[in-house]
Structures are given as C-alpha cells and as structure tokens.
Amino acid sequence: RKRVAEIDAEVAQLDIEAARCGEQLHRLQDQFGSTSSHFQDKIDSAQHRIDDRQLRSASLRDCARAALDVARSTCERRDRELVQLLRQRASGLRRTCAAYLRQERLRLAAAMECL
Questions:
Q1: Distance in angstroms (rounded) separating the CA atoms of residues 74 and 29
Q2: CA 48 to CA 54: how far, in whole Å?
Q3: What is the CA radius of gyration of the chain?
Q4: Tell me: the pLDDT tens digits for 34-85?
Q5: How far is residue 15 CA from its own chain's centroid?
Q6: What does each C-alpha distance from 26 to 11, 30, 32, 37 come to in angstroms?
Q7: Residue 45 contacts by C-beta under 8 Å, 6 or more apart in sequence?
Q8: How far apart are CA 18 and CA 4, in angstroms?
Q9: What is the pTM (predicted TM-score) of this model?
Q10: In the 8-state DSSP scheme, what is residue 107?
C-alpha cells in the first residue's frame, strides 16, 4: 500500500509538471507566433521597399535609355544639318573666291594694259 501511495504521489507530481510544461509550451508557442509575426512584418516591409526600389530603378533606367535615344537622334540630326551647312558654306566660299579671283585677274589685266 505504501508503494501505491508513493506511485500515486509521483503520478500526481508528474501531472503537475506536465501541466506546467503544457502551460510553458503554450506560452512559448504564443511567443513564437508573436515573434514570427513581428519578423514577418519586417520582412514584408523590407521586401516592399526592395520592390519599390527595383520598380523605380527600372523606371529610371527606361527614362535614361529614352533620354539617350533622344540625345543620339538629336546629335545625328544636328550632324546632318551641320554637314549640309558646311557644304553650303564651302560652295558659297568657292563661288566667292572664284568671283574674287576673276575680278583680281581683270584688275591685273587692266593694270597690265596701262603699263
């Protein structure tokens, strides 16, 4: 009988310890859930900021490419305009020089006749 009483006391003690462990397990599960939720919120927020930065980066890259395309096309157009202007001015300069040389030849010829 004494042994049965000891076993009952041990079983009662084990029940108490099991109840405490159950309570501690419940608290730890709640704490784990709270901590997990907290860090998941932080992860989600960080991911959202990363996504925003990537979107802005892609937008800026697209804008930069568009600006570069505009600059290149403007440069090419200006080059064509400058080449055309240079041809026109060179042509005009050749005509002016030719006219000047004709006049100078006539002037020299007239001067030679006077001598």
A1: 66
A2: 10
A3: 48
A4: 999 999 999 999 999 999 999 999 999 999 999 999 999 999 999 999 999 9
A5: 62
A6: 22, 6, 10, 16
A7: none
A8: 20
A9: 0.52
A10: H
